[in-house]
Amino acid sequence: MRFNKILYGLFLAAIARVCAYQDTGDDDGLTVTTNTGKYTGLQSTEYSDVREFRSIPYAEAPVGDLRWQPPVALRPSTKHHYSHRFPPSCPQYLTSTLTLWNTNISDFSIATAGESHRAGQFAQTSSEDCLKLAVWIPRNASRGAGLPVALFVPGGSFVTGGVEVPYQNPAAFVNRTQKHIVVTMNWRVNLFGFPNAAGLEDRNLGILDVRMALEWVYANIDAFGGDPRRIVLWGQSAGAVAADVLDFAYDDEPLVAGFFLQSGGAVREFARGDDALPTNFSFVARHVGCGDDDPAAELDCMRQVPAALLSNFVGAYGDDKTRPALRFRPTVDGRLIFGNYTARGLAGGLARVPALLSTTANEQASLSKWNPGVNVSQPNHQHNPPPNQTQVNEGTLSDFVCVARAAAVVRAAHNLTTYRYQWAGNYTNLTPYPWLGAYHASDVPMVFGTYDLRGGATAGQRRAAEALQDYVFAFIEESEGRHPTASGLAA
């Protein structure tokens, strides 16, 4: 009888532990409570000292009436979610046109779950319900740890990109330092992010997505062990442009301790007026049965068209090389995107925080017109001739080096701490053709620590990657900003 009572007592104790676990989320630190919900992540499959929260919404789903509207903040919630799967990327099209990016260096593109990177259709791994982010933290991080944070905005020419990109998984970087947190995010691109529709007041919606994600991180990162006063906004390519746009648009309330602008920046010319092609949206509308001279009616009709149909129309139009081209990119609106960034910057209209600016030595090589020859799998000059190097040099200077220099000049006028680096590494396992050299984005896997994703990395490459990581981490760790003054956001 006494033995049965002991068993019964042990049973009750076990039940109590289970209930306590369910109530408090005490599961080896894998459950975190934020202002908008409770999220259970998982231990990294490759790095036991890293925890991953792979999908956390930072705004309401931009669907239905919220399509082509500014992101809407989430309401407070205590609902529990399992954050085990990466979120779908925002709507995007997988072009059938052969490029370096969808053949030889496709690990810079969103994961496609077996679908061809050259499918010529709406990506099955994308969805309108996409305004979500992912968080990577050291295993021992906990609320109040005060770790510095990097919020990464992925690039993709304002057309593609998202959280689940193989070369942009920061688990290795976080695992190596054990002293910082990395957040990556989705944001709306192409027609869905920059519609430039006549019926809209806000047309640069993708930029507003980045700001909303930043606000969510600022208000909630303490729960993961991060310090909201030590957030560095880090963008690459189009993501760097978006990050720097916020530098100027929210100069009095940046919410960040610094900016890391990797091969991109705002001190450039943006489309405006006739150059912005404001009729593009109406052109698409007419071809999907929504032609209407009334902008409000046109917009209402377009919100009822399936996302895949819209994406496929715009994408196929580009695949067919139809002219004039359909382009949906950031446009000057005088609120988020300005007409003269040099003048605005020199007048003091930028955040007073440090910045790290970077370029690669041969940026334009992977962005120039490419002749794939007869066999895209064989990296040799005979079948895969390189682009004109003079044109590559001109594009590298005008589109990247001069942009970085202009940003540095503007910042120097206000004695703002500014660092620059040029990446010139050329490693066989990342560079399928020798003529590519240090092409656009070739430093991304080095910083993220994913350079050996497909094998073949050398010891020298590892040392170079770790040195680059050390410099980037030092910038993230040493940057310290200030609290907002007007938004009322609370960590």
TrEMBL record:
<comment type="similarity">
    <text>Belongs to the type-B carboxylesterase/lipase family.</text>
</comment>
<dbReference type="InterPro" id="IPR019826">
    <property type="entry name" value="Carboxylesterase_B_AS"/>
</dbReference>
<dbReference type="InterPro" id="IPR002018">
    <property type="entry name" value="CarbesteraseB"/>
</dbReference>
<feature type="region of interest" description="Disordered">
    <location>
        <begin position="372"/>
        <end position="391"/>
    </location>
</feature>
<keyword id="KW-0732">Signal</keyword>
<feature type="compositionally biased region" description="Low complexity">
    <location>
        <begin position="378"/>
        <end position="391"/>
    </location>
</feature>
<feature type="signal peptide">
    <location>
        <begin position="1"/>
        <end position="20"/>
    </location>
</feature>
<protein>
    <recommendedName>
        <fullName>Carboxylic ester hydrolase</fullName>
        <ecNumber>3.1.1.-</ecNumber>
    </recommendedName>
</protein>
<keyword id="KW-0378">Hydrolase</keyword>
<dbReference type="InterPro" id="IPR029058">
    <property type="entry name" value="AB_hydrolase_fold"/>
</dbReference>
<dbReference type="Pfam" id="PF00135">
    <property type="entry name" value="COesterase"/>
</dbReference>
<feature type="domain" description="Carboxylesterase type B">
    <location>
        <begin position="31"/>
        <end position="368"/>
    </location>
</feature>
<dbReference type="InterPro" id="IPR050309">
    <property type="entry name" value="Type-B_Carboxylest/Lipase"/>
</dbReference>
